[in-house]
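Subject: two folds for Thursday's group meeting

Dear M.,

Sorry for the delay on this. The cluster queue was jammed most of the week, so I only got both jobs back this morning. I'm pasting them in the order they finished. Each block is the input sequence followed by the predicted structure tokens. Could you check whether the formatting survives your parser before we put anything on slides? The first protein is the one we discussed after the seminar.
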Amino acid sequence: MMYVYLLSAIICEVVATTALNASNGFTKLWASLVVVIGYSAAFYLLSITLRDMKVGVAYAIWSALGIVLVTGVSAIVYKQRIDAIGIAGMGLMIVGVVLLMGFSNASAH
């Protein structure tokens, strides 16, 4: 269940971060509400995740997936593009999480 909570937290964070751009410095009411609600839900769900997962592991997964997903969403929604070096860097983050989860004793709880 901890992975369901973590994935839900990441999705809430991605929605909130995407809305943060749309909030125009918190001058747009509905986008601003999405930001506040999204981040609140994300941190609540992350706190539940941390009952069963180490904070460093959870944050590594949160960070890597969040960056990749926000970059993908911003490419679609805001037409923001990333170059090959950026894509390679994100790939390395994903590799790092896979190594952490698959081969490191740090992921054991």
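Second protein, same layout:
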Amino acid sequence: MKDLSEIEFHLSINTTRGICSLLFQSGVQLKVKAGVSINNLLCKQLSLDKTYVDKSISIIFMNGQPVDDIDKVIIKNNDTLALSGAMPGLIGATLRRGSHLAPFRDTITFKEYRNDITQDYGLIHLKLFNFISQEVGPLLLQRGVMVDLEDVIDLFDDKMSEKINGHLDIYLDGKKAGLNELRVILKSGVKQKLIHLKVKIS
């Protein structure tokens, strides 16, 4: 089995957005400082504009439960955070942060407003949906994300072939490689369960 800690690929912004729609729906893992509010995570650590967070990220789920107050909900190691733009219909309106329909989902709303969690670095699972994946995903890929090995294999197989149209530079731990070489390495087995995936937008 081979050591393979990082894959960097160079793509156009449009192709990167296409990859994001595939990658972030399944979710990636990010190394972050846990024990802080969701608002702190998004605005301070991920450097998202506060106005964008307030106006565009309308629906937030923590461990499968909708969140209203991102200043009070504290994220901890191994939590799963899902971000989405507005969704249509009654369900979308009910799930929206601060919605006047929020009382109808009171039994499933996230209420664990903990403030006793020690701040320390850990991994969280992040999912992005609809246009949020297109707008936030490329920013995160340029920083680098951790992806499950099986998801990397899936991404660089048929799904990747449909998106790149032959225009792709790949670097395996800093050394340039071809797509077929990467596929062989991934399918022959690597030691890591998580692969650091990074994009350089060209």
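Two things I noticed about the second structure. Residues 149-164 form the longest helix (16 residues). The chain has one domain: 6-201.

Cheers,
T.
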